[in-house]
Write a sequence for this structure.
């Protein structure tokens, strides 16, 4: 089904976007385009997502102070930095990226925009989707398109945990309540593919 569902308080989102400028997370030659509401290339075939898309996904994710969050497909580090701001001093964010060449610039940008970050960025482990060794997470943000809702990521959610993930060009919001899994779909988007075949 499709409905709005719980959403991140607008004031918290606006404060995060003010505190974490997209410009710093773009290649120098593209920083003058940071205000454009379009996806922009960051290298290695990856993009910095359209700001409206990021805002909508974070609103659906409903991150709160103190949450533990997995940012899967952290890319430039911009979403990781936004999440870092949203979780506050008591929270924790783990950004995972399969393109290791993006990690250096992303870490530098994160250090500049979050002087005391709660966030960590690391390379994805070959053959592993997400970060099961660090689970459970209160929230999981996936910034790559999947063909299905990966059960191995749902398993990494804690009780009342929420995952927001693009599945077949729709945004899927997944909520785990014990053994029950609730799903709702929202909008139409396009993302780089999530690598799900670990054989």
């Amino acid at each position: 089904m499709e409905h709005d569902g719980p959403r991140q308080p607008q004031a918290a989102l606006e404060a995060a976007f003010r505190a974490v400028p997209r410009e710093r997370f773009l290649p120098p030659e593209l920083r003058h385009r940071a205000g454009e509401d379009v996806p922009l290339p960051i290298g290695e075939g990856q993009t910095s997502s359209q700001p409206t898309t990021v805002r909508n996904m974070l609103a659906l994710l409903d991150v709160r102070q103190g949450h533990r969050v997995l940012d899967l497909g952290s890319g430039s580090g911009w979403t990781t930095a936004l999440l870092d701001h949203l979780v506050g001093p008591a929270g924790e964010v783990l950004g995972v990226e399969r393109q290791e060449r993006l990690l250096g610039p992303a870490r530098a940008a994160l250090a500049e925009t979050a002087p005391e970050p709660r966030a960590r960025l690391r390379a994805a482990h070959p053959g592993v989707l997400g970060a099961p060794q660090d689970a459970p997470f209160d929230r999981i943000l996936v910034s790559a398109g999947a063909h299905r809702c990966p059960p191995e990521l749902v398993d990494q959610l804690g009780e009342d945990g929420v995952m927001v993930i693009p599945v077949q060009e729709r945004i899927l919001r997944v909520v785990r309540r014990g053994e029950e899994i609730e799903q709702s779909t929202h909008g139409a988007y396009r993302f780089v593919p999530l690598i799900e075949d670990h054989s």
The CA atoms of residues 164 and 173 lie 5 Å apart. Residues 51-61 form the longest helix (11 residues). The longest strand covers residues 157-167.
